[in-house]
Design goal:
With about 70 residues, the chain is mostly helical. Helices cover about 55% and strands about 0% of the residues. The longest helix has 27 residues, at about 1-30.
């Protein structure tokens, strides 16, 4: 039982790292919108905030609801 618990914790930690890496990549792809000469729309601001909040979701890291990228 202890070994199973340790494996579950490792798998959960690995999943959390992968989700954070994906989230970070999505944020990085929109970083240019934060430049001082670009006005970010409220839709993009909300999207980026939702990405930052992914680790706070109750199902993290195994059940994620990804925010929808604005068009």
């Amino acid at each position: 039982l202890r070994r199973q618990r340790q494996m579950c914790i490792r798998d959960s930690t690995r999943a959390a790292v992968q989700v954070r890496e994906e989230r970070d990549a999505l944020l990085a792809a929109t970083d240019w919108m934060g430049n001082s000469d670009v006005t970010m729309s409220s839709a993009w601001t909300t999207y980026r905030a939702a990405l930052r909040d992914v680790p706070a979701q109750s199902g993290f890291p195994n059940s994620i609801t990804w925010p929808t990228k604005p068009s």
